[in-house]
Amino acid sequence: MGGYVGSFNTRTEWQIDVSVLEVAIAVAVSSVWCMIAPVLGPRLGFVDMPDRDARLKVHRRPAVPLGGIGVFAGVHLGLAVGDRFNLGLFVASAVVLVLGLIDDRLGLSPIVRLGVELTAGVLLMGFAFEDSLGPARFLIGVIIVVITINAVNLFDGLDGLAGSAAIVAAIGLALMAANRDIEPAFSLILAVALVGFIPLNWHPARVFLGDNGAYVVGLLLAFAMLQVGRGGSLIELAAPVSLLGVFALDLVVAILRRLLNARPLFEGDRSHIYDQLVDRGLSVPTVALLAGAGEATVATIALAVDNWFTGVAVLVLVAALLLIMIGSAAAAGFLQREPS
Description:
Blueprint: H1 20-44, H2 67-81, H3 87-105, H4 110-127, H5 135-155, H6 161-179, H7 185-201, H8 210-228, H9 238-241, H10 245-260, H11 273-279, H12 284-308, H13 312-331
Helix pairs in contact: 1-2, 1-7, 2-3, 2-7, 2-8, 3-4, 3-8, 4-5, 5-8, 5-10, 6-7, 6-8, 6-12, 10-13, 12-13
């Protein structure tokens, strides 16, 4: 792959090799767990109760925040039956799963969460990739893991929202992997495991991802991005990382909004873009569908850019796309609104 601004690439032959059994196991395990979780969760003390004043939580009935276990099990069992099991990925995702379960049950400080996320990132970069990584790629990989985990967690604020966007992102990463002649099976297995979760997470949800699920999905998406970008230069990570899409947009806007309003960065609020859309009269399912459509738009642009441009051109175009998205959010009034 070249590194010249404006050089063109006409890769069009996509080969996607994933078995029906791998897909069936991933979706079945995830969906069966999500049917068991509403019964098991309350017995284990995992129930997400609505806020009386709806200050932060907008759901109106109790739900079980254990969806991450189903996605975790579905992905790794799907990989295992296809002889694709990755011990490093399993350990790193298990670390954030446990972190999330403890956080869901007891609550943890931001410093503790960040420390464990960094540990998981180091484990992933150190043991999940067979090829030797230089210091720069290793460090950037850890940063991508931590950012993606937190971006997914912040975006997981409405029924069906994060799951819908993550399904689209995973499919986009599978197509980008195939376009780069990289095995796309992992991203497809992740996508179908999320498909197994989404029915019981759709509004009105009975099962949430919870912190455990948001952390797991974030780490798995980060692994997929790094896997797609592993064969080229560091610049060529830009296209797969751009598939953070709506997650990245909400993360950046949330940080800017809190800074502008002198609010603590780690304090929750109900002024995320998706919250404001609901406050403006859109239904929760509509916002979830809009998130999926927005992520699909980003994925389509990213695939086109990755297919036609290489090197620095990808980085410039991806950066321009993010700036346009942030500018549009600001123009629509999503940036300045005081958190309630």
